[in-house]
Write a structure and sequence with these properties.
The complex is a heterodimer of chains A (525) and B (374). The longest helix of chain A is centred in the middle third of the chain and has 16 residues. Chain A is built from 17 helices and 20 strands. With 525 residues, chain A is α/β, with parallel strands linked by helices. In chain B, the strands form 2 sheets. Chain B has a two-stranded antiparallel sheet. In chain B, strands 2-3 form a two-stranded antiparallel ribbon. The chains are: A alpha/beta (525), B mainly alpha (374).
């Protein structure tokens, strides 16, 4: 008899309309192993896992649990079969305590909430070595605590197979280490784990085997010990790509944009950016690293004039631009592009055509009452050709384009305007490797042209390869500015969590503050 | 294994074929007409006769065919203008359901101008004053809602809805309360009754044979073309599209979103008020049922036409044929009153909206997946 798998998926097909998300995919997980599911964006990883957790149903193919064929119609069915999924976006009730969130999903909970549920859950978390207070409200939890809670939740429901969808995307290096320790402990107890990820180093570090999908097709499953980064990448993207991101050396000019003691409040009124000072020179890419939600969004919005500034100065070419309207800041040549989680929220009008999106920032130019679409169409044509945007025509609504092309439209428009400072947040969010490299190349071109680029990013590896310097934010404070080629991921990770503070290390010589950039003095020389 | 699944699921179709949509509309109308025919047959009326009268507006065999066309135009003009005006707001996702109120206020303002200036100024100036005050009155009604929304983030749907009733009861108040101050009522009658307008406040007509063409029709058609151009080719129209699509993006692009909202809602409401002004000027008097529900029908027309100006023109014609045709046809049969016209209208609209839904969504029945996978 063949080896018994904890879960076996065979010949799974799933289509959404005309799009084939999964085609003849096979996947097996043994008991007590960690399987990494690897693939580019849109390769069907999440779809496949959603079928295992009962959110979708396969069009064809079979799923077996412990050798018995099963039909999974709903997440409840999956739960009964011992399959639990931790989604990328947590499914927790913010105003409930940890214990109540767990109890929410317990079947036959009875009419009354018993006090001993706290003890119950506490005992269980201790058994697995989790660090979580059952009485703590979810809204007071950090991201990693929420994730731990999600894992505890599925374990509490008796899951034998746990699926994690990009669990490390929101974690710092240290938190990731902690998560991996938990996962290894669970493996030792005989649980099976499937972890979806983009990050090859994590795959190699953690998993026993790797399954690879490419464009909905099943490629192969290999033992992690027998493979390496290069080979996995080739399977993933289908052909050899260089993993090196170019970092051209360009002569830097004087600072184009300087922030001094800038303080900004978030929508909730909390201080989001706290006395931040830094500067961007022309011809350099300054990376901004930090855990999600530590002030990046507020910083970008403030630079673009979209958010009131509480205190401090923003000096652009020797002129304070605090309090200028967004329109005036655009005219100064400061371009801001921010890719939010939904990718379309800010910067593009999704149901309007590429042409219409091209003229978004300059439709007011030109005399008269009418919009000049002809020049917009020419610009759209130009950007489509320059950046290789795949689209039926310039009149296609942006919403219909794929993620990479949408982001190219956005960046293309910003560059077209000939800015001298580009602020770009998460420009490769959700993009596959090829599209990402295209975006990096666009940014490098701008750098060569003497533009100052502020790159707010997520992936530390990319930032260390692409940026000249990296500024690390933690809870709205600058932890320091380091040279990208002289730092390490560990150092950045420590700074992101606030464990290492270079700015205030030497009180007499604050790092990251542009002491030499009193622009008036420079101009005198 | 628990095999419980919902009986059916609603799935949005990826591709919507334009021809199929139109076909399903036609089928829907046919179904509604067949149902109506069954009702007519029950009441011993020949459905074919009734329907042919309805579609031809009772013109064949009518001694005064011109009157029928004039009646048609009188219903058509306000509906077209109100629908186009509302679509301006809707494109910006500002849910202006205050058409009724804006229409009434426009009508009251026009009437006030007519009574105050009608005997003083020459006809062109009186008409101009009526038109301008109607537009301003309607526009201000809209501005109440838009200003509150922009300043305090109130819901425009609730505000415009409630303002409808304020306008309606204001009109009733003017219609029922006698007093020396009340310029809207006639002095000749002991009971409160609306005064008819002075001749100088009557909408002029162009006589073509026995048919007199209401000038407001020409004005409204021109206005609709202007709105079309405004939306499609101007900077303002572009701003409306961006604000409607994504207010964040608009802000980011340096647009003053509040200003765009205020401006557009003012124009939208002013056009609705204008429709009210035109209507009373053509009718020559106020009445408490002055709107003929056009503020609501306009919402339906704008949505059925998917906010496209051309679609709105076509839909308005069809809806007016239905409304007016039903009225005319039911007057020829003693056992059918105008309520049947309303019933038939309701059935047709309901059927078309259902068809619209089925053309864009499909139902997946329980177990359908198995057949696919087999």
């Amino acid at each position: 008899m063949a080896e018994r798998y904890a879960v076996e998926m065979k010949g799974i097909c799933k289509r959404f309309g005309s799009v084939v998300a999964n085609n003849q995919v096979n996947l097996t997980v043994k008991r007590g192993e960690i399987l990494a599911l690897l693939g580019e964006n849109g390769s069907g990883k999440t779809t496949l896992m959603n079928m295992l957790s009962g959110i979708y149903k396969p069009d064809s193919g079979t799923i077996s649990v412990d050798g018995t064929p099963v039909v999974i119609n709903s997440p409840e069915d999956a739960k009964r079969l011992g399959i639990g999924m931790v989604h990328q976006h947590f499914k927790l009730v913010d105003t409930f305590s940890a214990a109540d969130n767990i109890w929410l999903g317990v079947e036959k909970a009875g009419m009354l909430l018993k006090k001993d549920r706290y003890a119950n859950i506490e005992e269980m978390t201790r058994r697995f070595g989790f660090d979580i207070d059952p009485r703590k409200l979810v809204c007071n939890m950090s991201v990693s605590e929420k994730q731990t809670l999600e894992i505890v939740k599925v374990l509490y429901y008796g899951a034998k197979l746990i699926i994690l969808d990009e669990p490390t995307a929101v974690l710092t290096v240290q938190e990731t280490e902690k998560l991996f320790a938990v996962l290894r402990r669970m493996r030792a107890e005989g649980h099976s784990i499937i972890i979806i990820t983009h990050k090859l180093n994590e795959v190699l570090e953690l998993s026993d085997r790797v399954a690879i999908l490419r464009k909905g097709e099943y490629i192969t499953t290999v033992d992690t010990a027998t493979t390496d980064e290069q080979q996995l990448t080739e399977w993933m993207v289908g052909h050899k790509v260089t993993l090196n991101i170019d970092r051209p050396v360009v002569e830097k000019t004087r600072p184009l944009l300087e922030l001094r003691d800038l303080t900004i409040r978030s929508d909730e009124g909390a201080v989001a950016i706290d006395q931040v000072s830094f500067y961007i020179r022309g011809g350099e890419i300054l990376g901004v690293a930090g855990i999600a939600g530590c002030g990046q969004k507020e910083l970008c919005e403030a630079i673009a004039g979209l958010r009131p500034i509480e205190g401090g100065k923003m000096i652009h070419k020797g002129e304070n631009i605090v309090g200028l309207s967004p329109q005036a800041i655009i005219e100064k040549g400061i371009a801001m592009s921010f890719i939010p989680e939904d990718r379309l929220g800010m910067g593009l009008a999704p149901s309007m055509s590429i042409t219409d999106n091209m003229i978004l920032k300059n439709y007011k130019q030109g005399k008269g009452f009418f919009v000049d679409r002809q020049s917009g169409r020419t610009a759209a044509q130009q950007v489509i050709e320059d950046l290789g945007i795949v689209t039926p025509s310039t009149e296609t609504p942006v919403r219909r384009l794929s993620g990479g092309n949408v982001q190219k439209v956005l960046l293309g428009r910003e560059i077209k305007a000939g800015p001298n400072v580009i602020v770009t947040a998460y420009p490769v969010r959700g993009l596959d490797i090829n599209s990402s490299y295209a975006i990096y190349e666009i940014l490098n071109q701008q750098k060569r042209a003497g533009v100052g680029v502020l790159f707010v990013g997520e992936d530390l590896d990319v930032m260390m390869a692409l940026c000249d310097k990296i500024l690390v934010l933690c809870h709205g404070k600058v932890m320091g500015v380091v040279h990208a080629n002289k730092t390490s991921k560990e150092e950045l990770g420590l700074m992101m969590t606030g464990a290492l503070d270079l700015t205030h290390k030497y009180e007499d010589k604050p790092a990251g503050i542009a002491r030499d950039t009193l622009i008036a003095e420079e101009e005198e020389q | 294994m628990n095999n419980r699944q919902p009986l059916f699921r609603v799935v949005k179709k990826n591709q919507v074929d334009g021809r199929k949509v139109i076909l399903s509309y036609l089928i829907a109308v046919a179904v509604a007409l067949v149902l109506g025919a069954a009702l007519l047959a029950l009441m011993k009326v020949n459905p074919l006769d009734f329907y042919s009268k309805m579609i031809t507006l009772g013109i064949p065999g009518n001694r005064y065919p011109a009157r029928s066309v004039e009646g048609f135009i009188r219903l058509f003009v306000p509906l077209l203008l109100v629908s186009v005006a509302l679509s301006l707001s809707f494109r910006m996702r500002f849910w202006n359901v205050g058409g009724e109120g804006q229409f009434i206020v426009g009508a009251i303002c026009a009437a006030a101008a007519a009574f105050l200036l009608g005997d003083v100024l020459p006809t062109p100036l009186v008409l101009l004053a009526m038109v301008v005050s109607a537009a301003l009155g309607g526009g201000l009604m809209g501005t109440i809602a838009s200003a509150l929304k922009v300043r305090y983030g109130t819901s425009e749907t609730l505000m415009t809805l409630m303002l409808n009733y304020i306008a309606l009861y204001l009109l009733r108040f003017f219609g029922e309360t006698q007093g020396a101050w009340n310029i809207f009522l006639t002095d000749d009658s002991a009971r409160p009754r609306f005064e008819t307008f002075p001749d100088s406040a009557q909408m002029p007509t162009i006589e073509i044979g026995s048919f007199s063409l209401d000038v407001s029709l020409l004005v409204v058609v021109v206005l609709c073309v202007l709105v079309y151009i405004y939306l499609k080719y101007t900077k303002h129209g572009y701003e409306i599209a961006v604000v409607g699509d994504s207010p964040n993006t608009a802000r980011y692009a340096g647009m003053k979103v509040g200003r765009v909202v205020m401006r557009t809602v003012f124009i939208s409401a002013a056009l609705v008020g204008l429709a009210g002004g035109f209507y009373v000027s053509s009718a020559g008097a106020l009445s408490t049922s002055v709107t003929n529900n056009v503020g609501w029908t306009g919402v339906i027309v704008a949505w059925m036409a998917k906010l496209s100006p051309v679609g709105i023109a076509v839909t308005s014609v069809l809806i007016t044929v239905l409304q007016y045709g039903c009225q005319v046809a039911s007057t020829t049969y003693p056992n059918i009153d105008s309520n049947f016209a309303n019933l038939l209208q309701g059935m047709i609209l309901f059927a078309v909206l259902t068809a619209d839904f089925t053309a864009r969504y499909s139902l997946v029945w329980r177990g359908a997946n198995k057949e696919v996978s087999a």
